[in-house]
Amino acid sequence: MHSPERIAxxxxxxAWTEETVQQLFADRVAEFGDELAVVDPPNKQELVGLASLxxxxxxxxxxxxxxxxxxxxxxxxxxxxxxxxxPNIVELVIAYLAAWRVRAIxxxxxxxxxxxxxxxxxxxxxxxxxxxxDRIGARxxxxxxxxxxxxxxxxxxxxxxxxxDVDGATNVGxxxxxxxxxxxxxxxxxxxxxxxxxxxxxxxxWTSGTESRPKGVPRAHYEWLVMSWDTVYSPGLTHExxxxxxxxxxxxxxxxxxxxxxxxxxxxxxxxxxFDLTVFLRQVSEERITYTVAPPALLAMLLQNDRLxxxxxxxxxxxxxxxxxxxxTWMVQGWYDRYGISIINFFGSNEGLALMTxxxxxxxxxxxxxxxxxxxxxxxxxxxxxAHTTIKLIDPETGAEVDEPGRPGxxxxxxxxxxxxxxxxxxxxxxxxxxxxxxTGDLFVIxxxxxxxxxxxxxxxxxxxxxxxxxAPAELETMIATHPDVVEVAxxxxxxxxxxxRVCAVVVPKDGSTVTxxxxxxxxxxxQIASYKLPERLELRTSLPRNPVGKILKRxxxxxxxxx
Length: 564
Known about the structure:
By secondary structure, this protein is of the alpha/beta class. It folds into three domains: about 50-195, 3-Layer(aba) Sandwich (Rossmann fold); about 235-460, Rossmann fold, CATH 3.40.50; about 465-560, ANL, C-terminal domain (GMP Synthetase, Chain A, domain 3, 2-Layer Sandwich), CATH 3.30.300.30. The protein is about 35% helix and about 25% strand. Strand 14 (about 340-350) and strand 15 (about 350-355) form a beta hairpin. Helix 4 (about 55-75) packs across helix 9 and helix 10 (about 220-235) packs across helix 11 (about 250-265). The radius of gyration is 24 Å and the shape is globular. The two termini are about 45 Å apart.
């Protein structure tokens, strides 16, 4: 994955070590044996037709060994790519650990993906095998994948969890039952004969592909494990923690936000899928959850609607992670004042973890809502990434480095969390500059009393340029979201012959409420923003379009609005 020079740089600094995910799991099994490890969502039977499980570390180890033996028996081992399409259930955790036990590369796919995405990613990723359930909800997924075999030339095996027979696919339960007595020893012998290198690729995750052809993001032990220190540190996870995971374990948020921190500290991981607020809050109460994650819109809604939390016991919650968007100060302050819960804002991507609020030093709610730490000489930050990561802001027009406050620049990032480069690199533009910095495509400004913070402006490609003036949708979205009748909002530009673009606000109103363009404009004028930023069009929706990992599809909104 990484060059000898890069390995020498980051092992020399202490950022990368010889640890591997396999060793972390083995250590946790040895430490915690019969203690509870993973809990299924309570609706698992309805979701995939399988009983809900509560498994200990020893039970998990045995089930990982069984699936690993099945994989080996079907010719899946070192360097093979195993695509996995499973919801957040215990079997998804088993799949990760079993693939890693036989040195395979796991490529997780959101359960929402259908033929178009599966075939496209299967061809790009050259997948060797596919693991799923016989059904997910009403979809007969295993049968569907069998039907795609002719379109994915490298696909050799389709395996599934479930209780039915699927022609052309292997039932994992039946395959386990047919294993001989020496299956576990065969797995151990295979592992011994194929030693792990922390530079080995262990996952291929996928970008959303909303703007272009999907891009595969391969990652090794090195990058995943150095990042996991930060997602342990920020929420203060320990063995005594109980974490609830509602995010699909298919990308940075689910893998580095939940799976790897769990593997580091050996706490209890409680799975949730699909998102259901009633079930989610019941799990927080019944499982005595101490840490979870949630999007900003949900956090704001819960704080504004006391009745939603009236029957829930959230007294064990200490931190909630949110991410990749400016947070509302009243919301961050409100969660702390009312419930003593700190909101942590994470900002990153599949390509590399970037920024997060330092809850130990950023004690003011307005700081945690609006700013991220600016790594550098102005202030010492306590979380691990700050010690190993270099950032700079680059003017997107001139290419010059930005060092004064208030001037937008694209965030460039360099450090041990960065991936080595996209899959199929010959057909994908490099995201790195000549010095090896990742060009994130995100605009920030230097801010704060001592220039010690970065403030998010927007995605560079999402800027609205009205009459030559740059308008950041994220800024307007944060302000419009405080409108008393607004649940969610997205701001996009639409074509104008005179000014080039004008601003459109796409709003989801609260149930029973009416939102008008005039009321939105009045709300913004009361906050004294520049008049050229005011929206000149309002579109109402019952929901905003999102991709399978929850990102708002602004391209789709722009296309819809342009066509009206």
